[in-house]
Write a structure and sequence with these properties.
The chain has twelve helices and twelve strands. The chain is of the alpha/beta class. The protein folds into two domains: 3-156, Rossmann fold; 183-308, Nitrogenase molybdenum iron protein domain (Rossmann fold, 3-Layer(aba) Sandwich), CATH 3.40.50.1980. Strands 8, 9, 10, 11 and 12 form a five-stranded mixed sheet that branches. A four-stranded parallel sheet has the order 5-4-6-7, with helices on both faces. It has a three-stranded antiparallel sheet with strand order 1-2-3. β11 (240-245), α9 (253-256) and β12 (269-274) form a beta-alpha-beta unit.
Length: 312
């Protein structure tokens, strides 16, 4: 077994069936089917790779295109906007409130949902209709790579999945090596500025800061995305502020401009990053890492060839 196979979190059918039976959950084992544990620990059975997938998460849509599996994608939600080709796919409603009727109308044999956006009631409703549902819940870089691997396994794109995951892991190592031994500036990553919501160390953005050679000024224990006031911002005294632009605020740096002249409030540099580069758990997280390494240390490492087509 290749080393990167571990990211698939795949248990052999017979072993998983035995484990579930031991727990009082007997599970039939059919020749040719396989099982995967999803992001919330549910065992999902796949008699064969799905042929009609509805993606309720923009990150899943990106991954399917990265794996050259776009032909399997029959529906997406409102914010599935990358790559541009995804805009032509049928929509099933908002990302946080998809239409059950719209999903059913597309006759999917698999729906991929996100635990942080889609309710257990929606998942149960889909299951009650006999529609297989796989729930993702990546809250770290490792879990992001695991999720990519799982989607590759589900769609029968294992080779493409290996190449993509290996390329992302290699780039992470390259950046960490390049910043090793350098001074680690104090960094604040803002998920949004109105209200001022910041990324703690136990977030994907927080892990990107560490990988890029920075010290997150948000202490562990405040929660993953605490809300700060100006006093807390002044006390943290970040040397570099990374502000995220998104549809609701395309100029977050403007929030800090009037604070620059106030002694003790903001003294650091402000850089703006695209939200998808730090919040959407997929291949373009490498763009976030690339931009952070440039902002923190002036390091400009080329994106690996295996993922270049997915992060432009």
């Amino acid at each position: 077994m290749r080393g990167s196979d571990c990211v698939y979190r795949l248990l052999p059918t017979v072993l998983l069936a035995a484990l579930l039976t031991t727990c009082g959950l007997p599970l039939p084992v059919l020749k040719g089917e396989f099982l995967l544990l999803d992001g919330v620990g549910r065992a999902v059975t796949f008699p064969a790779p799905p042929q009609r997938i509805v993606s309720l998460a923009p990150s899943v849509t990106e991954v399917l295109y990265s794996l050259d599996a776009a032909e399997l994608l029959v529906g997406v939600t409102e914010y599935s906007d990358y790559p541009p080709q995804a805009l032509s796919k049928p929509r099933v409603g908002r990302y946080d409130q998809p239409s059950l009727e719209g999903i059913v109308a597309l006759r999917p044999d698999l729906v991929v949902a996100a635990a942080d956006s889609h309710s257990p009631a929606l998942v149960k409703a889909l299951e009650d209709l006999g529609i297989a549902t796989f729930v993702i819940y990546p809250r770290s870089l490792r879990e992001t790579l695991d999720t990519i691997g799982a989607i590759a396994r589900i769609t029968g794109r294992e080779e493409a999945g290996h190449a993509l995951v290996d390329g992302m892991e290699r780039y992470l190592r390259q950046v960490k090596t390049a910043v090793a031994g350098k001074n680690r500036p104090r960094v604040l990553l803002c998920a949004m500025v109105r209200p001022l919501t910041v990324c703690g160390p136990r977030t994907i953005g927080g892990e990107l800061i560490a990988a890029a050679g920075g010290e997150n000024v948000v202490p562990d224990g405040q929660g993953r995305y605490p809300t700060w006031n100006l006093e807390t911002l002044a006390e943290a005294a970040p040397e570099i502020i990374l502000a995220v632009s998104h549809a609701g605020d395309d100029d977050p740096a403007a929030f800090f401009t009037p604070l620059m002249g106030q002694a003790g409030v903001v003294r650091g540099q402000v850089h703006v990053l695209a939200a998808d580069w730090v919040h959407r758990p997929g291949p373009r997280l490498l763009l976030g890492l690339w931009e952070m390494a440039r902002a923190l240390h002036g390091i400009d490492l080329a994106i690996p060839e295996t993922v270049q087509g997915n992060v432009k």
